Amino acid sequence: MYDRIMQIISEMIGRMQEGDKLTVMQFKELENRGFTVAEISTALSWIAERIENSMVEKTDHAMRSEHSHRILNDSERLMFSAEAWGKLIHFREIGLLHTEHVEMIIERASMMNIGTVDNSTLTMLIVSLLFQDEDSKHSLHRMLLKGDEQIH
Fold this sequence. Notes:
It contains eight helices and no strands. The protein is mainly α. It has one domain (2-143). Helix 1 packs across helix 3, helix 5 runs parallel beside helix 7 and helix 6 (99-112) packs across helix 7 (119-130).
């Protein structure tokens, strides 16, 4: 479920950065692709909170490549699968993660002695970092809906 929420967040932030406005049709498209209302609501709630806190900034597509990328040392390179490292770079590119977040994820993965960090492990590291943010007004558990609630 967390991976799906991160996918929605990634898509929505990408669209917003390209100047698209979020519409009901885009949300219906997500539902048609199999995302639940709870997943969409959780993702949008997280984005709205970050916009309110000015943590997600609208940038030009061309400016995204100006971010410096972390070069992994040999032991760190062995720790991440190519797909997971690409996903981490993508989230950094769109502004979902900051440089400090990337460093914290590398450090946590190293300290936890996980072995190879794949996409699902990376998602859990990102979720634990972003959704349990001290600046957040609510925890992940309060943000996730059971699926039978209605949002007005």
